[in-house]
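TODO from last week: model DegV family protein.
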Amino acid sequence: MKIVTDSSCDIPRELIEKYNIDVVPLQIEIDDKNYSDGVDITHQQFYEKMKTSLGLPKTSQPSPQSFVDVYQDNIKKYGQILSIHLSSKLSGTCHSAMMAKEMVGEEEGRIETFDTLSGSFGVGAQVLEACHLVEQGLDMDTIIERLNEYREQTRVVVYLETLENAVKGGRVSKPKEFVANLLNLKPIVHVEEGYVRVLKNIRGKKKGMKFLLEEIEKKNIDYKDRVIGITHCDCLEDALILKEEIIKKFNPAEVLVTTMGPVIGTHAGIGGILICF
């Protein structure tokens, strides 16, 4: 079975290679120039460009043909493809994958699409879980059943350092940004039923990081066999500090730290930190 995903997954390159995952890139437009995410622009290059851009970068879903090309390359070789994607409530990526499935048909094998109802490492965690299930030799129906359960258990919470990108995107007014800066308010958002919703406003970064830890604790489970993911918007030092606190407090099997890609990073803004647990 072949696992396919899209570039919103924010899975570290070494794991993509380890599990032989095919990644279909979303498209990014910055200052009237177009890029394929992860192909001709790196995460770091994206953040450097975003810092100096007057407008908000725009992202767009892959075309159905992009998926068709990947599916046709793999279906004869693997017989089965499980295509796992960014929340359909946030992007048309999953719809493009479903259209491609219909275009390819099932004469050569079986193709299934899976909506993670999540973003960034919320997608990546589900992709990696699927890879582990494939390694166990489980069939497609069982893997999808297990993924549905895993999706229900997975939480994604994001700390926003700034509202600058929300202002650029027209979602927050300048006066509201001024008040937030004046009061040092840091919004915390989470992914719920596939949508991004405000969870709380916190005063200051220190309290914001404490709140993230409290959210992990609130789940009230033993993390010794679980992986916790952290993705960050060009703020590695903060992410590593948070990683150490998570290890000290919860002793999980692993804490993966990676950069947040353009798809979610565009809206989170510089300094944003996402946790997936």
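Done. The chain has eleven helices and 13 strands.
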